[in-house]
Structures are given as C-alpha cells and as structure tokens.
Automatic annotation (TrEMBL), chain A:
This is NADH-quinone oxidoreductase subunit G. It comes from Acetivibrio thermocellus AD2. NCBIfam families: FeFe_hydrog_A (TIGR02512). It is found in: Membrane. Residues 1-80 form the 2Fe-2S ferredoxin-type domain. GO terms for biological process: ATP synthesis coupled electron transport. Residues 139-169, 182-211 form the 4Fe-4S ferredoxin-type domain. The keyword Translocase applies.
Automatic annotation (TrEMBL), chain B:
NCBIfam families: PRK13596.1. Pfam families: 2Fe-2S_thioredx, Complex1_51K, Fer4_10, NADH_4Fe-4S, SLBB. Its EC number is 1.6.5.11. This is NADH dehydrogenase (Quinone). Keywords: 4Fe-4S, Iron, Iron-sulfur, Metal-binding, Oxidoreductase. It comes from Acetivibrio thermocellus (strain ATCC 27405 / DSM 1237 / JCM 9322 / NBRC 103400 / NCIMB 10682 / NRRL B-4536 / VPI 7372) (Clostridium thermocellum). CDD domains: TRX_Fd_family (cd02980).
C-alpha cells in the first residue's frame, strides 16, 4: 500500500514530502514558478502576487502561502495566470528605473529576468519612475530607492535574521518606501554593514559599494606598490560567476588573475588567520588561567558583529577579544614589511564581506592617518574587475601566492565558514595534535550550517565549552541566555548565516548551495599539510622579527574603552 | 459589585422599577451627528431650566425617582439624522426635530411641565403632522432591534441598560448554557458577520473553540472605515453595553478571557462612552475576575486606530493592536487559528456582537423569523445621499431597495430622478434603476455584483456623474492602500490615473478596456479584501453606465454637467451687452469682441476658471 501523499500539478502527480508551501513543491517538480518576494529563509510575505496558481475550482491561491494537501490539483500556467503575471510585471516596470544598461545589477536582476521571460514588449502606463534616490552614506552598501520593487526581502532579513531593524517600510500605498528611522542616511542608523540586504535584494536597489575604479587607479599609478590579500571564503564562491562550479576552490586561478591585473604582491588572508588563532587562543587561555572567565571570550574577526556589539550590547565589549581580525593583523604586517619601499604602499583586501569596508576605515586601524587596508574589494567586485580586464578565468593556469608570506595552515583556511575559527582555536589548544584528534574535533558539533552550535572539548582536566552562532538574531538570543546564566568559555559570532561564505559581498546563491562552499573550504584544509596554526614556520619568523616587542601595537585593538564606535 | 446572579436579578428589578417610576423622561440625542448640531448645549439648557423650575433633574438613573423627577438623558442616535438635533419626550413618545437652543424654554414649560405638544417642532411630511416618533413613516417600516435602545435610554449609564433587561443573556450564558450550547444557538440562528463578510459567526466561534491554546482572544472590529458609514459608531456611542455583553458571551463560548475593542481614532465620543461602559461594568462585577461568582473572568481593553482604512482588515487590525505596521498578512494561518499575538482569535464586527444578546435571550427560532432564510435578522444601514430622509435605519434583511429609498427614505430630494445607489462603501458596487426591487441580503446582492458591505447606502440622483463617483472611490482606495502587494498598490494607482484623465477630458480610446483589464487583475490577485474589492465601483459603474464613460472619452462631454474640465462656458449673445468686463477678467485672453457687440469665448483657449462668470453683471455667461 502506497502511504505516500500526492497532489496534481498541471495534471502530473507529485509526491508531497514535507514542503511547507506549494511554491517549494512546484519548484521541486521542475517548474520555475516566478516570484519576487519569496525567500526560503524568511517569513512568507506574499506581496508580489506572481506565484498565484489556479485551483480546481477556478480560484486563485498564492503558492508561497498555501500548504500542499494530498489530493489537491492546481495549474501553474493558464491563460488567466499568464495575463495576470504580465500585468503585474507591466505595473512594476511602469514605476521602475528602466536604464538597465547603466545599472549596477544589469544582468543580475530578477525584474529583468522575468520581464524577458514573459516577453514584456509594451508598457501601457506612463513612466512614473522617480529620479535616482541614492543613499551613499554607508561605506558598505549603496541604496537607490528608485530601483526598489518593495518586495520587503531586505526588511525581513534585517529584522528577522539579523535582529538589527535598521530599515523598514514607511508610508502607505504608492508612497510606500523603504526607510531608516526618520529617513536618516543609513550610516547614521543602526546598520551594522553586514550586507545581507544587498544579497537579498532582487533588483539594484541595494548593492555592494563599488570601489573597483579606485583600485584600478592605484594599480595603474606608477608610484604605487599594490599588495593584495585574498580571504578564504572568496576562493570557493568566485568561480561560479566565472565559469566554474560553486564551491570549487579557485585560489590558484585567482592569484593568476590578480597578477595579470597588475597587483605587485599577492597573499592569502589565511596567513593572517594563523596569527589570529595564536593570539586569540593565548587570550582565551590567559582568561581561564586568571579566573576571568565568568563571561565567555567573544571572537572579534567579524566587523559586523563588533558593530552590533557596540550598538546593542556595549556592556559586552570588555569580553570581545582584543585581537584584530585576520585581515587587519595581516595588513599591519604587510605594511611593516614593505615600509622601506620607495613607492607608496597600497594594500587591497579581497573579502566576501561588505562590513570589512567599514572595518578598514576605522580610526583604530590607521597609522598616521593612513589605513592599513586601503581598499576592500568584495568577491562581486573582483569578478567585475576580472571581466573588465578580459581575462578568461576558466582557462587560467593556477599560480602560487608570493613570499615572504607564502605559508598558511588548514586552520587558517577554515575561518571562512561558521565554526572554522573555533575549530582552529581548538586545534591550537588541545594537547593531542594527532590526525585522529583533529578529526574528532571536526565532529564535536562545530561544523555545519546550523545557526547555533555547541560543543565541549577537554583541556587538561577541564571542559572547555564553546558556542558557535551565525546570524545576529541567533547571537542576540544566545547573549540573553548567557546573561541569564548559561556558561561558555568561547563564543564565535559570525553575522552572516553560515559564516563568511555567505557574506554580503559574495555572489548570491540558494541556501542549499551554500554548503558546497563550506565543503570547499574543508577540502582545502585537507590539502594543507600543516593543520594547526602554531606549526606554521612563518609564525615563529614573524614573532622573532617584525612582531618583536610590537605584538600589541600591530595585532591588537581596544574596542572596550572607545566611547565613539565610528 | 454584584457577586452572583441573584444580586444581578435584584439590581435589574430595582432599576426597572426606578425606570418605570421615572414618568417624565427627556431623551436628547447625543450621537456625534446631533452633538455637532448643538444637542449638548440643548441638553445643558434643558437641565438648567428644569432645575430652575424647582423640579428634580435626574441625569442618571441612580436613585428612586420622586413624582416630580424629570429624567434628562443623553441618548444614543435616534437615527433620524436629517432632522437633528432630536429630542424625544416620554411617556407620550413625542419626537421634536431640528430643535434649537431658543426652543428649550418652550419645551420645558409647555411639554415637560404641562404635557402639551409643540406642533412647529414636529416632523411633517406631505402636510401631515406626526406627533409621535413611532408614527413617522421613517420609523414605521424599520425593525429596530440592535438599535432598540438608541434614542430610548441613557447611553452613558449601565443602570438603564440593566433596567431594560440588560445582561440577562450574559447570565443565561454563564450559568444555564455550556460553551457548545451557546455556539449552537448562534449557529442555528445563522448570525452572519455584519461587517461585510457575511461569514457565519457560529462557525467562526466553533473554529476558535476547537483550538488548543493557553490564551484566546475576542476582538471587536470598530474601525468602520467606509466613508459615510456610522452604524457601528452609533452602537458604540448609543448602546455600548450591548456589544460588551456580546463580547463576553463570545468569550464564554470559546474560552477566551481577554477582549479588545479596536476603535478608529476618529471616534473620540465612542471611545469615551466605551471606556465609561467598561468601567461601570467592572464596578458592577460584570467584567473582570470571577464574573458573578462563575469562575469565568473577562477583561476588555480599548485600542485606538490611527487613521488607516486598511486596519479594518482582520490581520492588519491585529497587527495594529500588536503595535506593528498595519498591513494584512498572508493566510493561512487564519485569524481563528493564529490571530492576535498568534493566538486563536474571534474577530467580529460591532453589529455582529450587538446581535448576540438578543439571540441568546430570545432564541435562534425567534431570530430566524426575521429577515430571509439565508440572511436572518436585521441590518443597520447608514442611509445618505440625495434623499429626503437621511439617517441611521435598521431593517429586516430582505427589505427591497425600493422600500428603503422611497418608503423609509422618503424618496428623492427636490423631486429629482433616482439614478443609482452605492452600497457597501468604496468596496461596493453601484446598483441602478433596474435593481430597485432587489432584496437587501447577502446573497442577492452578491449575485447582482454588489455587496452589503458594512451597510453604507449612498443614493444618487440624475445630477450625479457616475464617472466622478468611480474616481472618488478609487481615489479613496488608492490613498488607503497599505502598499504591500503589487496589484493594489500599483494597479489602483493606474486605474486612478486613467479615471482622472477621463474626467479632465483626456480620455483615450481603449481606456475602458484597460480599466476592466486592470480591475480583473487586481480582483483576482490582490492580497486582502481592500485590494480585491477596490475595483468594484469602477466595474459596476462601467457595467451600468457605460454611456457616461463613453461620453467623457469620445465626446469630451460630461452628461450631468459635473466635471469641471468638461464644462463649456459660453456667452449668451442675446444677453450680452458687450461691456468687455469679462474679456478683461480672462487670465488667458480667450474672450474677444467689439464693444457694444456680443463677445465670444475661444473654446480652445478657455481654461474653465469661471472668472468671467463672476464678473458678468448681466448673467450672460453660462456653464454647461
């Protein structure tokens, strides 16, 4: 007896397997039902009305908000539905900026895609699109309300996933708009710069800040020595936009491309991450030794998390690690290394992260008014630069990063995925450095795409309790639990769900695909012959050389006593 | 504080005795309409004069009246709003209309003291003088059940509500019936939602009862956003205890212990009357913990709206109470499963709750004997427009439009011809002459492409431009759209755009078809009721009055002479003296001519500002 449940979609029986709404079932059945506002990780909003389907009684239901039931019969493509979809697109386009050729999101826009798919050839309403309404105040994202279709995804991400609520709907009817409190420039709001809104936005209304032209200028300037570091998460996400598979580790080709583009010195942020592991584990152990661990040590490599902490939980700042992020630690070292160059030093960091643009500009990371990291390019911007330079990425031969900072460990590479920092610190801290021991660390529970993870590891005769959260709402919830008495020794916080692999500057991908990126980093770790940061020979060289007597100055930062966060 | 049903019964008997002993009663209409007409000044004046005459002026039924006690009460809306301010005198049942402050002395001396009738203050129709309220044709054809107390008792005190049998249904529901029995009675009676949806209330309550939850809520929708509708306002102002009693009974039936009344911000008088009613009910032990010793507790809170029509939609209303943006949400989950604060919620209209005590008291069979089979009971309507008698009426379901307009409403004003009637506010359709014999009930109207809605009826005569009516309602809907879904936000904007072009003389071939296409998309795909019904006025006016649209579009002419931009201003040559004043007043130089000879207006230049009409001393310039 077949106990499975079926329903009919366009006459074809499809098995119901716990899908929460018709839309997911229909897409699983291989039909690309169009939507704007549906996002599988956010609450159902039901505003775009593109996903309507016709039921057996001739009525219409929104597929995103109707649960499937055994025996239902729906049609996804009838004469009426086609008519309505076209009308909805026409209505949206009539009020939308149609200068696609000069738009940041040209070719990556859902509205464009659907207008093409449904053959919208004529718009019967006068064009009431407003002039560009640009808010350029943030260092991380650029908003243009004239390109907004009010799908609400940005609002829901900011409110539901990040619990920041810097943006929300304002006004009513056709005057409705996305606004900050009192419509202030976003830089003056509670925005932490995580860029998840840009990732969620289907059109060009919120995009990652574009710094490519500035970097090109520096590259072409004959008087500059331009160095660049590449973050772990970038290498497993960039390939998809350039002809490779998502999750494929493209570091070799990235280095080759950067060299061709004209960068002078090319490094890997994983090296900086090794430094962070060493400093942070020392800090953790010192806190435990001195009995100062009622509250956990919170990681500090995620700038959006630091920003969130400064704005929402400033009382926790004394418990945030004083370590700089790998990007910042590494940049200090690099700028020191080439400080005697006759040319002006420019350092660029390629990051999956929009908040890094903000971090690079922080007062704390400037030396004599010059930032250690002059520019941060997100993965998306690098893709654009590679395309601009005409390089056929997929055909490049992989190359190696430069010396003297050419060594990094697997512990450094896994920083890009949620749980990576914790696992790297645990590798440093445990006394058993055998492959078996490290393999068991992988199974303690720190790995995986869950937003909240917990693990405990023996350190001597003591149990170390660690928590790994990604997504700021999860962080907030955990903080409340900690304040209510739950104890942890170390808490890793990444603002982006899943960690940096899902950063605001990464190419957008469905959540099921995100795991591939994490797997790509763990594979890269497998290929590294050094697994634990303290075994990286470069570390000893640095501590005996550049860092001698200057560890605090170059590798640490004081967030706690700073009154002004910006 | 009444601690048990025995004490309630005693209290009821006592107040009933007091009421009967209050031989002479003066009920001054204190509904918002009459208040703005000065009825509160009249109340003060009458009270003052009565006291000066040495009589005991009792404004609240608190003590046993003496023989010379004059009950001076603020009553709920009498309903005959066209004739306000209204004063009713008992025991004779006289109704005085259009009362002025100067009339107060005469009323006191002649009627209150001497029992005489003042003819000039009575209602007259076709030469007949109607002394008593019940004889007036406006009232004769009505069946005032939900509104039975409005105009008859003090709207500000619980004592008169008790005196007329109030809270008996609550007693019955608390002690003599189980939750299921209450729901069965309401279901048997087929009480259908009076807010416009017509959904069987019994079924809704049963659905909430079935849910397993720690907390359930009863919410009363007092948003009444339809322009021109004031049925709910009158109930909240005039008989607040009736609806509170209904809410408590709903709570008993479904297992809810908290109630919310959502009143639109624009009803301050309703809010204050409700607040007072709730306080008094609490004082008497009819609200709060352990009501009448039954172990059932119920508390009611009042939430004010903030000026959004869309907050009359169920899920937007609950969002508003929760402090969130008033936007409807997708369903499922439905309000009965996850409503206010995500808990199972009974959400009903004011009038629906006001029907409940009657049904519990008199039984389902009694209720079904009124109205029609599928739509039993009565409905309150706000009768407005170009008729003789505008006001608040209550009629059995099934009464025809013709009876309402001509028998109750007194026919068209100024002898004009009937053209159309708009039912159900901005979401309702227009019915025309051919529909006059349609019975007013949920299903008959739906079949005709209209709906009862909340009960607003706007009667229009032949001088009304139906295209302008459609534009007016579409403008309202566009302003009130919450903006969430594309079809409503963008679609109604475009429909309004087209209608505005048409009334300004810029209609194009294809506009009617485009309007209908937009209407089809919006009705089929909009997220909530506001959007789904937004296009009804346009669709029904096109269906019934297409020629008017075509005249505006193709002939650039408004057949009723209403649309300003389509009017033609001409100079009557036979009256024109050629004084040239008009030519000098014209801001665009459209008028030319030789002095002492008739002047001429160049239509292509004329901007229809009307300045020339004002300057012409000979009334030689016409607009049409």
């Amino acid at each position: 007896m077949d106990n499975r449940e079926y329903m009919l979609i366009d006459g074809i029986p499809v098995e119901i397997n716990g899908e929460k709404n018709l839309l997911e079932l229909i897409r699983k059945a291989g039909i690309k039902l169009p939507t704007f506002c549906y996002h599988s990780e956010l609450s159902v909003y039901g505003a775009c009305r593109m996903c309507m389907v016709e039921n057996e009684w001739g009525g219409l239901d929104a597929a995103c908000s109707t649960p499937p039931r055994a025996g239902m019969s729906i049609k996804t493509n009838t004469e009426r539905l086609q008519k309505y979809r076209k009308m909805i697109l026409e209505l949206l386009l009539a009020n939308h900026c149609r200068d696609c050729t000069t738009c940041n999101n040209n070719g990556k826009c859902k509205l464009q895609d659907l207008a093409m798919r449904y053959n919208i050839s004529h718009i019967r309403f006068p064009n009431t699109a407003s002039n560009p309404d640009v808010d350029d105040s943030s260092l991380c994202i650029t908003r243009d309300r004239s390109k907004c279709i009010l799908c609400g995804d940005c609002v829901r991400v900011c409110n539901e996933v990040q619990n920041v609520g810097a943006i929300d709907f304002a006004y009513r009817g056709s005057k409705m708009t996305i606004s900050t409190v009192f419509d202030k420039p976003i830089f003056e709001s509670n925005c932490v710069g995580c860029g998840q809104c840009a990732l969620a936005c289907p059109t060009g209304a919120i995009v990652v800040k574009d710094d490519t032209q500035k970097v090109w200028k520096e590259i072409y300037d004959k008087n500059t020595r331009v160095s660049v570091q590449i973050a772990p998460a970038v290498r497993v996400a960039l390939g998809k936009e350039l002809g490779l598979n998502d999750g494929e580790n493209a570091i070799g080709k990235i280095v080759a491309a950067l060299r061709r583009m004209g960068f002078d010195d090319i490094f890997d942020t994983s090296t900086g991450a090794d430094l962070t592991v060493l400093e942070e584990s020392a800090e953790l152990l010192r806190r435990i030794r001195e009995g100062k661990n009622d509250m956990p040590l919170f990681t500090s490599c995620c700038p959006a998390w630091v920003n969130y902490c400064e704005k929402f939980y400033p009382e926790l700042l004394p418990h945030v690690s004083t370590c700089r992020s790998p990007m910042q630690m590494f940049a200090s070292i690099i700028k020191e290394e080439y400080s005697t160059s006759s040319k002006r030093l420019v350092h660029v960091a390629v990051m999956p992260c929009t908040a890094k643009k903000f971090e690079a500009a922080r007062k704390e990371f400037k030396v004599n008014g010059v930032p250690n990291v002059d520019y941060v390019l997100t993965t998306q911007e690098l893709v654009r630069m590679i395309k601009e330079s005409g390089i056929v990425f997929s055909e490049l031969e992989p190359e190696a990063i430069d010396m003297p900072f050419g060594t990094y460990t697997g512990a450094g590479v896994i920083f890009g995925v949620s749980g990576g920092v914790t696992e790297a610190v645990l590798r440093r801290v445990v006394s058993d450095k055998s492959p078996t021991s490290f393999r068991s660390l992988a199974y303690t529970g720190v790995r995986g795409m869950n937003g909240v993870k917990e693990a405990s590891v023996m350190y001597g005769d003591r149990k170390l309790k660690v928590a790994v959260v990604s997504g700021l709402k999860n962080a907030g919830d955990l903080i409340e639990r900690i304040k209510a008495g739950e104890h942890y020794d170390l808490v890793e916080v990444m603002a982006c769900p899943g960690g940096c692999i899902n950063g605001g500057g990464q190419p957008f991908v469905q959540s099921e695909e995100r795991e591939k990126r994490g797997k790509g980093l763990y594979s890269a770790d497998k290929l590294c012959n050094i697994k634990s940061s303290e075994e990286n020979p470069l570390m000893m060289t640095l501590y005996k050389g550049i860092l001698k007597g200057r560890v605090h100055e170059l590798l640490h930062v004081d967030y706690a006593s700073k009154k002004e966060a910006k | 504080m009444l601690k048990n049903r025995e004490e309630l019964r005693k209290a009821r008997e006592m107040y009933s005795r007091y009421l009967k002993a209050e031989k002479r009663r003066v009920l001054v209409c204190a509904g918002t309409g009459c208040v703005s007409g000065g009825s509160m000044e009249i109340f003060e004046r009458l009270s003052e004069l009565v006291s000066k005459r040495g009589m005991d002026c009792q404004v609240e039924l608190k003590e046993e009246p003496h023989d010379n006690t004059i009950g001076m009460k603020k009553s709920g809306c009498h309903g005959f709003c066209e004739m306000g301010p209204l004063v009713r005198i008992e025991p004779e049942g006289y109704l005085y209309t259009k009362v002025k402050l100067e009339d107060c002395e005469e009323i006191v001396d002649r009627t209150i003291v001497a029992g005489e009738h003042i003819e000039r203050l009575a209602y007259k129709q076709n030469g007949v003088v109607y002394k008593k309220q019940d004889e007036i044709p406006f009232y004769k054809k009505q069946t005032r059940l939900v509104l039975e107390h409005c105009g008859q008792i003090d709207s500000t005190s619980i004592t008169e509500y008790l005196a007329t049998g109030g809270y008996y249904a609550l007693e019955k529901a608390l002690f003599d019936m189980t939750g299921d029995e209450i729901i069965n009675e309401i279901t048997e009676a087929n009480l259908r939602g009076r807010g416009g949806g017509g959904f069987p209330a019994g079924r809704k309550w049963a659905q909430v009862k079935r849910q397993n939850a720690k907390q359930k809520y009863v919410v009363c929708n007092g948003d009444e956003g339809d322009p021109g509708a004031f049925m709910d306002r009158s109930i909240m102002e005039g008989d607040p205890h009736r609806m509170i009693e209904g809410m408590i009974i709903a709570g008993i039936a479904c297992g809810a212990s908290e109630g919310y009344i959502y009143v639109r911000a624009e009803y301050p008088l309703a809010v204050s009357r409700l607040k007072r009613a709730i306080e008094q009910a609490k004082e008497f032990g009819l609200l709060g913990e352990n009501i009448l010793g039954s172990n059932f507790s119920f508390n009611i809170h009042i939430n004010r709206g903030a000026g959004a029509f869309v907050c009359g939609e169920g899920s937007a209303l609950t969002a508003s109470i929760e402090g969130k943006r008033g936007m409807p949400r997708v369903k499922p989950p439905r309000t009965v499963e996850q409503g206010l604060f995500d808990m199972p919620t009974v959400l009903n209209n004011v009038e629906t709750f006001a029907n409940v005590p009657l049904i519990i008291k008199n039984g389902a069979d009694w209720y079904k004997s009124i109205g029609t089979e599928k739509s039993p009971g009565t409905k309150a309507f706000a009768l407005t427009g170009n008729i003789e008698n505008t006001g608040l009426i209550e009629i059995p379901m099934g009464t025809t439009l013709r009876e309402v307009i001509f028998d109750i409403g007194g026919g068209m004003r100024n002898g004009a011809d009937f053209k159309a009637v708009q039912i159900g506010g901005p979401s309702g359709g227009c019915l025309s002459e051919k529909d006059l014999d349609l019975p007013l009930d949920f299903d008959s109207l739906k079949k005709a492409g209209a709906m009862i809605g909340s009960g607003g009826l706007v009667v229009m005569d032949s001088n009304t431009c139906m295209v302008e009516v459609a534009r007016f309602f579409m403008n309202f809907t566009q302003n009130e759209s919450c903006g969430k879904c594309v079809p409503c936000r963008e679609g109604t904007k475009r429909m309004l755009e087209i209608l505005e072009r048409i009334v300004e003389g810029n209609g194009q071939d294809g506009d009617i078809e485009l309007l209908l296409e937009l209407a089809d998309t919006i009705s089929a795909t909009a997220l909530c009721g506001l959007g789904k019904a937004a296009a009804f006025p346009v669709v029904s006016t096109i269906k019934n009055f297409r020629e008017e649209y075509e005249a505006h579009i193709y002939d650039k002419r408004c057949p009723t002479g209403n649309c300003q931009k389509l009017k033609t201003i001409t100079i009557d040559a036979s009256l024109c003296k050629g004084c040239s004043k008009c030519a000098r007043s014209c801001p665009v130089g459209a008028i030319t001519g030789k002095v002492k000879e008739p002047f001429v207006i160049d239509q292509s230049k004329c901007i229809k500002c009307g300045a020339c009409i004002e300057t012409c001393a000979f009334h030689a310039i016409l607009e049409g």
